[in-house]
Amino acid sequence: MVSITEILKEKSIDYWDFADSKLFGIHKISSYPATMVPDMQKELIKMVTEEDKSVKNILDPFHGSGVTLVEGTGLGLDPIGFDINPLANLMTLVKLQGVNKKIVESSNRRIMRKVLEDDINFVVHDFYNIEKWFRTDIIESLSKIKHIIQQEKYKYIRQYYWVCLINVIKKYSNTRSSTFKLHIKKEEDINQLKNDVFKDFFQNISTSYKYLPDYSRHKKVLLSVGDTRELLSKTEQNSIDLICTSPPYGDNGTTVTYGQYSMLPLYWINKKDLTKFDDSLLENYSSIDSASLGGPKSIPSKVHYTSDRLINYLDSISLSKHRKVINFVNDYLDAFDKMHNVLKPGKFMIVTLGNRRVDNEILPLTEITKDFLLEKGFSIEAELSRNIPVKRMPRKVSRVNNKAVSSMNTEYVLILKK
């Protein structure tokens, strides 16, 4: 049996950058902010499963677009995933459950024929401020597609079509593509956009299914929407063989606004085709981000962490930022406390981390995480660092003294054992 240490010795210092790696196949079906690198995740999971042949399941408690769970499933593991974002959940569900390709091909022909018919009666979709975010003709085109998707018999096929519609909704919205936050484009750019909604949707549904696995009603896919701390509390203790995840590096409101990025597509998708979630997550454009770790509406943390490292950091930033940092760190470590509970003794956790800036001072999140997990009894089997050449992050994430602050360009990977 080859150990993780021996495998790592064979890798060059820049191996983990995966500088030439690109999203491909199944991972390109729908775009999402700050996705993981599939090649890296596959390699990391493979290292652990080669050392420990008894690993049967994999948990990602912040699964995002599902890269880690897709790669874990490809290596024969049963996927378990949590995310507070219903859109991320839908994308991951479709990638894992797959489709019946013959049924999709038949449904595609029906949908394309129906969409092009002139005498289809449909209700024009509406939600608060819809005309701010979409041109009138775009609303009509998307509404027609929505109506026809809802006529599809099989739920998993409807879910596939919703995922294919996400990129179309994003492309034809009035929001700028240069940021994950909702900001209106210039009026001239909105007016110049050519309405190719039908053409783009047809292209997506005709190609994306080819990358998906075959659908089976007996396939074991366990995904849930909600605060990962609550979901971990409901998970059986010592039941998980491998945790592999990249948790948020800060509260969503000031790092990556996954919720704002996802809200417009969520307002178009029929809720009955989404995994059950709390309605409050769709109350406004910031609801998901506010309910995420460190957000003003996140569930109360059961961890109240303090250390010299954290105190020294807080002393370096303005007093007005203390509460935001403390709230996030407590929520974040609360999640790790619960991850420790569900992981089996002797099993591995793989965590990809980054250190963000607050007041232009680097929050030592990686070191805080290590300190906390060592106190919980984990051992650090390996520690890697990598440059971030391809991860889709905003180039500038906040402003200090009216100057934009660059986002992080280095990530750290910890391989820990309970």
UniProtKB/TrEMBL annotation:
GO terms for biological process: DNA restriction-modification system; methylation. Residues 29-86 form the DNA methylase N-4/N-6 domain. Keywords: Methyltransferase, Restriction system, Transferase. One of its GO terms (molecular function) is DNA binding. The keyword Transferase applies. Pfam families: N6_N4_Mtase. The keyword Transferase applies. Coiled coil: none annotated. InterPro entries: DNA_methylase_N4/N6, SAM-dependent_MTases_sf. This is DNA methylase N-4/N-6 domain-containing protein. It comes from Enterococcus caccae ATCC BAA-1240.
